[in-house]
């Protein structure tokens, strides 16, 4: 259930990002970016976010999740390709010298405040 810990971090980050001068702040939308390889299950994260945002300025906020597809690059031939799961060799040159170049993101991108 590691999404619960992650959801708590998201709530902490988002609450900390609220401008301090606002009285009775309300977050309208929370924007997250989650890589396909991050190991975070969006549905599960949303479930915990809803529970943990109760009695915070995030309560009732829309959660917008942008899922980032995974991509891998071969360091030998510089071929890049989308990869949904872990790969161990390049489909072009069979080199094992690979870098995951995207898909591991997990970011709180921004919060939109209600007027
Ligand atoms: Zn290659």
Short description:
By secondary structure, the chain is α+β, with helices and mostly antiparallel strands. The protein is built from two helices and six strands, in the order H-E-H-E-E-E-E-E. Helix 2 links the parallel strand 1 and strand 2.
Task: Give a description of the structure.
This protein has a single domain, classed as hypothetical protein PF0899 fold (2-Layer Sandwich), CATH 3.30.2320. It contains 2 helices and 6 strands; from the N terminus they run H-E-H-E-E-E-E-E. The chain has helices at residues 2-16, 42-52, and strands at 27-35, 62-68, 71-74, 80-82, 98-102, 106-113. The protein has a 3-stranded mixed β-sheet with strand order 2-1-6, with helices on one face. Strands 4-3-5 form a 3-stranded antiparallel β-sheet, with no helix packed on it. The model has no long low-confidence stretch (mean pLDDT 93). It binds zinc ion (ZN). Residues 74, 76-77, 79, 90, 92-93, 95 line the site of zinc ion. Residues 74, 76-77, 79, 90, 92-93, 95 line the site of zinc ion (ZN).
SSE arrangement:
Blueprint: H1 2-16, E1 27-35, H2 42-52, E2 62-68, E3 71-74, E4 80-82, E5 98-102, E6 106-113
Parallel strand pairs: 1-2
Antiparallel strand pairs: 1-6, 3-4, 3-5
Helix pairs in contact: 1-2
The site of zinc ion (ZN) has 8 residues, from loops.
What order do the SSEs take from the amino end to the carboxyl end, as H and E?
Answer: HEHEEEEE
Distance between the termini: 35 Å
Largest β-sheet summary: 3 strands, mixed
Question: Helix segment count?
Answer: 2
Bound molecules: zinc ion
CATH C-level = Alpha Beta
Label the overall shape.
elongated
Indicate how many domains the architecture comprises. 1
Kindly report the CATH topology.
hypothetical protein PF0899 fold
CATH architecture descriptor text: 2-Layer Sandwich
Rg from Cα: 18 Å
Arithmetic mean of pLDDT: 93
